[in-house]
Write a structure and sequence with these properties.
about 220 residues, eleven-stranded mixed beta barrel
Length: about 220
């Protein structure tokens, strides 16, 4: 069975996941900023670095800072793999601050590419999350599926969905479906190999009792070297 077929199957599995029943949710407005850089070392090997600043609680404070890196390898034009490390500082109102050291592996597959410029991509990521304030390791699986559709000569509609599945129960995760993110925005090229993608992101956090829904202005800057 090919990697493409495996990834297609996983994308279909996540897309068919059972939706949460309608219930009261806690709502919050966020502003998330992201800076992403891909550095091509060779035709096959590349490095990706990123920083994300997430302002929460009605965008009043820096609730989370994420610094992430990855070393990747292109198997062919449609499939690449990689492994990396991320540091995440989470500082919510009330609960104690968490300092996370996250190791992860990912598989990226282009599922569709048309002559008109429409693309559909899948990223499957397995994470091992360790915390300075905890002793156990949290395992999590994420599957990101993104569609890009040209709407003008230079701009594309960008839409993605990404469920997060906790693979074990620890002091920081309860197991099962924990987060579901959905995004729609517009790609705007600024220069060669530089684009900004602003849009709306909804993050639904599944919790015991009342869930939380984050309504987020998400602005990401992408560069390639």
């Amino acid at each position: 069975m090919s990697l493409r077929r495996i990834s297609c199957g996983m994308a279909a599995l996540f897309a068919a996941s059972v939706a949460s029943p309608a219930q009261a949710t806690e709502d919050d407005f966020n502003v998330w900023l992201g800076q992403f850089a891909t550095i091509n070392a060779t035709d096959k090997a590349y490095v990706r670095i990123e920083a994300q600043e997430r302002f929460t609680n009605d965008a009043d404070r820096l609730g989370q800072l994420l610094l992430r890196s990855l070393v990747g390898y292109r198997i062919d034009k449609d499939v690449n793999i990689g492994a990396g490390y991320a540091y995440v500082r989470t500082d919510p109102v009330g609960p104690a601050q968490l300092n996370e050291h996250r190791f992860y592996q990912e598989l990226n597959v282009r599922l569709l590419s048309t002559e008109g410029g429409v693309t559909l991509d899948s990223r499957t990521r397995l994470e091992q999350r360790t915390f300075e304030e905890r002793e156990d390791t949290s395992w999590r699986l994420r599957n990101f599926v993104q569609l890009r559709v040209p709407v003008t000569q230079n701009n594309k509609i960008v839409a993605y969905t990404e469920p997060f599945l906790d693979l074990n129960e620890t002091g920081v995760q309860r197991g099962g479906l924990s987060i579901w993110r959905s995004f729609v925005g517009l790609s705007i090229p600024l220069a060669k190999n530089i684009e900004v993608v602003p849009g709306y992101l909804n993050q639904h956090v599944f919790r015991e009792g009342e869930d939380r829904s984050d309504h987020t202005l998400n602005i990401n800057l992408f560069t390639t070297f």
